[in-house]
Amino acid sequence: MSQTWMIISGKGGVGKSMITSALGVALARRNMSCCCVDMDIGLRNLDMLLGMQNKVVYDVLDVAHKDCKLKYALITHAVHSSLSLLPAAQLGDVNQMDADDMQRIVKKLKKRVGYVLLDAPAGIGRGVENMLPSVDHAILVVTPDDVSIRDAERVIARLEEAGIGRPLLIVNRVIPEMIADGEMYSPQTVAALLDVPLLGYVPDDRAVLAAINRHESFMEQSGSAKDAMERIAQRFLGEFVAMPSFDPPKRGLFSRLRKKNKKKPSTLE
Ligand SMILES: Nc1ncnc2c1ncn2[C@@H]1O[C@H](COP(=O)(O)OP(=O)(O)OP(=O)(O)O)[C@@H](O)[C@H]1O
Ligand SMILES: [Mg+2]
Known about the structure:
Number of domains: 1
Strand content: 15-25%
Bound molecules: adenosine-5'-triphosphate, magnesium ion
Strand order of the largest sheet: 3-4-2-5-1-6-7-8
Oligomer: single chain
CATH architecture: 3-Layer(aba) Sandwich
CATH superfamily: P-loop containing nucleotide triphosphate hydrolases
Order of helices and strands: EHEHHHEEHEHEHEHHEHHH
Number of helices: 12
C-alpha cells in the first residue's frame, strides 16, 4: 500500500529538501516508485537539488487550482524513471491552497507511486497545517544543536496532536571529530533528548554544496553524505543496517582550551 511521508523540521535550513531529494533517488535506485513533492510554495528548490530545474512547466498550485492535470505537472527523472517530482510554485504563497487541495493531490499521487515524499516548509505554519491531514508518517530532520532540537520538540508535539505519531529522526550535518572532542551532540544523544527513533545521520559533506552549485544531485557522486543516505534508505525500507555509534566524549566543551593553556603557560606566569 502506498505511503505518504512528510519531511519536516522546526528550524529552517537544516536539510529537509536535501534529504527529500536524496531519499527519492535512493528509493528509485531500489526500484521503488516514488514522487517528491516540493511544498515550499513560493520558494521552489527541490527541482534544483534533483537536477530537474530545466523541465519544470507546471507546479503544485496549477494542479490545486485545476489549471492543469496532475500528470502534466509531474516530471520524470532523466536517469531514475521510477522517480518523479511535483514542483512547488515559484510565485504565490501557501494561502493559495488548502488541506482539501492537498488531500486531493496526495490521493491521486498514491494511486501512481508507492512513496509520496512531501518536502515541508520550515516550522509549523499554514503550509504544514495544510499537509497534516494527508500524511501517514513523518521524518524529522534536526541538526545537532540546541536551537534545532528545541524547535523540533514543538514539531513532535504537533505531529502527535495531529494523530501522526512520533516521527523517525535524521540528524544532519554531523561532524564526527567535533563529537569526539565533546563539542557536538552525537546522533544517539539527539535521539535520546527528543525521545524519537533514529533512522540515521548524515555527515556534513562539502560534496552536498558542490553538487547543488552544479545543479545536480549529490547522490550521483561518491561521498560520505551519499553513503549515509543509501544506508538511511535501506533502513527506511526495513533492512537492518548497523549504525556506527560514537564514543562518549572524553573531554568537555572547553577542556581543550584548558589543556592548551596547561601546555603553554603564559610567559607572564
Ligand atoms: N549534510 C550536509 N553537508 C553539507 N551541507 C549540507 C548538508 N545538508 C544540508 N546542507 C546545506 O544546507 C543548505 C540547506 O539545505 P536544505 O535546503 O536542504 O535545507 P531545508 O531544511 O530544506 O531549508 P528550508 O527550511 O529553507 O526549506 C543547503 O544549501 C546545503 O548546502
Ligand atoms: Mg527546503
